[in-house]
Amino acid sequence: MTAAISAERLLEDLNPSQREAVTATSGPIAIVAGAGSGKTRVISRRAAYAIETGAVPADQILLVTFTDKAAGEMVERMVSLGHRSVMARTFHAAALAQLRHFWPGRHDGEPLPAILDSKLRLLVPLIGRLPGGYRFTPAKDMADTIEWAKVRRIRPARWVHEGGDRAPIPADLFARVYRDYERSKAEAGLLDFEDMLVETVELLEGDVEAAALVRSRKRWFSVDEYQDTNPLCERLLELWLGESRDLAVVGDPDQTIYTFTGATPEFLLGFADRHPGARTVTLAENYRSSPQILELANRIVADGPRGALRATQPDGPRPAVHRFADAEAELREIVAWCRAVAAAGVAPAETAVLVRVNAQLPAIEDALTRAGIGFTVRGRRFFDRREIREALRLLRRERPAETGGPLVAAVERLFVERLGLDDVAADAGSEGRERAASLELLLGILEDLAAADPALAIDAVLAELDRRGASEAADSADGVNLLTYHRAKGLEWDAVYLPALDEGMLPIRQAKEDEEIAEERRLLYVGITRARRFLALSSSSRKPSRFLAAIEPPRAATPRAARGVAGRVRVLPGAPMAVPVAPDDSLLEALRRWRRERASADGVPAYVVAHDTTLAEIADARPRSLPALRRVRGMGPTKLERYGPEILAVIDAAG
Ligand code: ATP
Ligand code: MG
Predict the structure, then answer these.
(1) Is the domain of 409 the same as that of 525?
(2) Same domain for 645 and 609?
(3) What are the pLDDT digits (tens) for 3-55?
């Protein structure tokens, strides 16, 4: 085991403000500072310093982090400082442990109910029963609003009075869905994520002995990413603290990105008022990113209360900004960029592509898989997914005899008949969508193989897939990271690519109010500040994100080969130039006409039927079958089922 590092050495490589925060080991303290300024580092050092100087025993410390991954990393940091026994947990995990301990004693010996992993499962059928066009309301938006209500402890019966107009549907309808959701959850004997916190709060509020026991175990707290705490977490924290005043919070108001679930930076900004005598420390130096990256970040949120971030790292290459005519060109660039940064010496695990929504990931996974570049999506490998292993087993068993194109068609039939690929109605949940997307991706790989070899037979397919699976496994844990901006919070990589900076994607189309747009801007700030040395941004639609204009004025397209990474001239194979592709206008017009009619027949806005970008992609791709149509970005299973045949008819009619 690593020996504990002495108090003196713990301070050695800190700047004066960081040192001030680390040595203030008792009483309330808030550290308000920008990205990459060492906030998380201060939390771990401060805990180690407090133990070393005898301010608190290690087992009385609780370090609260935002995600399980961050908790794991915090434990690693503490281990490397020689303190294995310090506890780091999310609010939810810490609450769950307490609840599990006290639950049987308060519920006739019953164990804690199971936790509902996703609200969508219960919500989808309830939304389907809503009147008129409301039944097309995205379940994710409803789930977010329920979460927002629950963290404010607004019950369904009070929603109409206290919820305002926050819900994506009229307040009375929302209150009904919320009530029915709570009811079906109770009937299934489940607790959801917010229930864990609500139940713990009620336990500690109502049971003096339980509260005393909990407080005797942990009495010294630090909370990371405190700008995204919500009223429920805040209440829990107060209950954990009791009479103790040993609370440190760290955060960056400019990185508040969870207000849609009820988070608010007010707790961070009002900390000193709520905790008389609190010390406030700011950190101005950034230790993560090159000056070139910081300059860009500062243009996104220039004049917050903290002022601009000051660079300490050496110069790096200028961030690249591309505008592509379509998503295909952008995908080719992502592949080329991954290769280029690898060639410049960056390990794949030190590379990340960040997206606004998970639905963007399959297309990128597809492009990387076809290019033979290993990647990790939330820790899972492509060839290791259940549906892909199932599919390969099926192919090995059935061994279709066709070759080339007909072989791909035969495999597709097998997937439809045996793996339920087309069974879109049965599972509208996100898990079903991911499963379908993986199988589609596998079909896409087969299509590529068949295009390269018209005599392609099943043996060659299986051999090639085995080869790719093995190579993915070999370099997987360290593949390119694919994740959302929201998951990327607090993390850092040498090289970061931010694609699809388009109106409708970032800012996301649901963001309309100024406050919502401001949060989208903060997301971009979070994305940019994850990068240490290499950063690339691009748009791929006819309407680039308004934030791009803030970063760089539009400029003439330059052939990629003239730029390259790290200032080196490099010709990137297959790298596109930003030349607009003429869309097929007559088909696009016909699709728009169809959308107008369909939207007015259903009584919903046109974008609910299909997005402009989706129609444009359909017009470009001219798919002739349902599976081909499904490969168009924006065509999920539900849309496919509802509109697929009509869209194909429009394409047919256009010739
Ligand atoms: P975020 O706002 O993104 O969560 P943060 O403020 O928590 O960022 P850290 O992750 O703690 O920042 O630190 C950013 C990087 O800078 C880390 O790699 C960290 O090790 C390094 N770092 C922090 N302080 C110093 C320092 N005084 N000297 C050298 N490196 C430092
Ligand atoms: Mg941090």
Answers:
(1) no
(2) yes
(3) 889 999 999 999 999 999 999 999 999 999 999 999 999 999 999 999 999 99
